[in-house]
Amino acid sequence: MDRKLKRPPSYSDSFLILSGKQTELEPLKSPLLSSSSVFFIEPPLEPSILQSPPDPQIPVSKPHTPAEKWFNRIMSLGVHITLISLFETIFFFHFVSVSEDTGLKTTIDSYVKNILTTCHNWTSEQHVVINDILSVLVNVTQVDKKGRIASSKRNAYNSALQVQSWMYFAGLLSSILICGFIGSHASLRIAYKRILVENLIMVTLLGLYEWTFFETIIYNYENISPPEIDQFVVGQLQTTCNLLTYNNT
Hints:
Blueprint: H1 47-50, H2 66-118, H3 124-137, H4 140-185, H5 192-218, H6 226-241
Helix pairs in contact: 2-4, 2-5, 2-6
Keywords: Membrane, Transmembrane, Transmembrane helix
Transmembrane segments: 77-96, 166-188, 200-221
């Protein structure tokens, strides 16, 4: 059928018939167009191209799994104990031990204060008698030698205790670092910042409380008084050596 088209041809035109050897439609040629002009029918655009781009979504953090929750709790507890270990080591060896030594020296000074203030008023005879008695009871050379040895042993022993305390802290810190490495290697989400900030705040508050407690309670505590020491010494001499058993009026 030979028809002249006044419009571009379309595949829907009923008079188009494929030949037996054709398997698909070739580009249609219109008689109205020049022989060099060919009209192609383009397929429609896919729906995905016509659609507008999706709106950007705000990422929502995924809740922690039970394993991550327990791991964060263990890490938080470990960090807390580690910071407490650091705090106790510094606080004891730089404040508590110094306070105890100072308190003991103050008590001894109070005990001998009466003798030190009255010895200048002794007569020469009294001084000779008291010196002879003390020379029999006290060997100054031995006392000085034993004092130096005891001081050296005490300092060495306390230094070893301080090193041991720092080793505790180093062990705890190493354990925390190893646990953190294992957790990161296992792709567990660990709230490092929250754990560190919370525990630093807790230890800081604890330090402020300890300082306040020492300033208001410990330093104001009354140690045993010299009269009580006198009573204790006299009682021991009476019970053990049967001395000072006479009654003074």
